[in-house]
């Protein structure tokens, strides 16, 4: 079969969350439905109603987040890492998965816990009330900079 190029533009369906829920259409297989007030989208399978479809995974990447030494407090979540710093982040909830990418020196130091936790309300009633907790064996002597924080949004957020 020969390949052909077509110069065209594609417009996806765009609506608010309330309108999507009210109409609850069945999207065609591969059709994209964008929720304009949530900055999220779903891809149709040709048979499921919109509310039954999962949101496509959203990944946010933040770079060069500085953590002051004053941000660290005592915490008993992880016995080997008794200090926790809070990194407030816009639109992060407690069900989101978060990965921290440390620079080589910090990663090899053993001072920072290899896991972190997200916090906030599950329904993100206020997009400003979430973020990430990071843990350390000792309070760093100076401000640290996290090169990359990756947030994988939980599904769904109605």
Coarse morphology: elongated
What is the average of the pLDDT values?
85
Number of helices: 2
H/E element order: EHEEEEEEHEEE
Spatially, the strands of the biggest sheet line up as: 5-6-9-8
Low-confidence stretches: none
Strand fraction equals 35-45%
- Approximately how much helix is present in the residues? under 10%
Helix/strand class: mainly beta
Instruction: Characterize the largest beta sheet: strand count, sense, and whether it forms a barrel.
Output: 4 strands, antiparallel
Structural Rg: 20 Å
Count of folded domains: 2
Strand runs, count = 10
Q: What is the end-to-end distance?
A: 43 Å
Could you characterize the architecture of this molecule?
The protein has 158 residues and is mainly beta. It folds into two domains: 13-52, no CATH class; 59-152. The chain has two helices and ten strands; from the N terminus they run E-H-E-E-E-E-E-E-H-E-E-E. It has helices at residues 17-23, 104-109, and strands at residues 13-15, 32-35, 40-43, 59-67, 72-78, 81-88, 97-101, 117-119, 131-136, 144-152. It has a four-stranded antiparallel beta sheet with strand order 5-6-9-8, with no helix packed on it. Strand 5 and strand 6 (81-88) form a beta hairpin. The relative contact order is 0.20. The model has no long low-confidence stretch (mean pLDDT 85).
């Amino acid at each position: 079969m020969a390949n052909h190029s077509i110069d065209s533009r594609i417009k996806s369906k765009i609506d608010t969350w309330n309108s999507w829920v009210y109409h609850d259409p069945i999207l065609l297989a591969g059709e994209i439905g964008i929720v304009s007030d949530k900055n999220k989208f779903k891809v149709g399978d040709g048979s499921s109603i919109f509310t039954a479809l999962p949101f496509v995974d959203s990944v946010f990447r933040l770079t060069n987040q500085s953590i002051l030494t004053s941000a660290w407090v005592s915490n008993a979540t992880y016995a080997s890492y008794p200090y926790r710093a809070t990194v407030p982040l816009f639109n992060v909830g407690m069900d989101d998965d978060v990965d921290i990418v440390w620079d080589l020196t910090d990663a090899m130091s053993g001072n920072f816990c290899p896991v972190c936790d997200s916090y906030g309300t599950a329904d993100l009633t206020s997009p400003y009330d979430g973020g990430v907790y990071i843990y350390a064996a000792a309070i760093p002597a100076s401000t640290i900079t996290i090169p990359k924080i990756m947030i994988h949004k939980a599904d769904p957020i109605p």
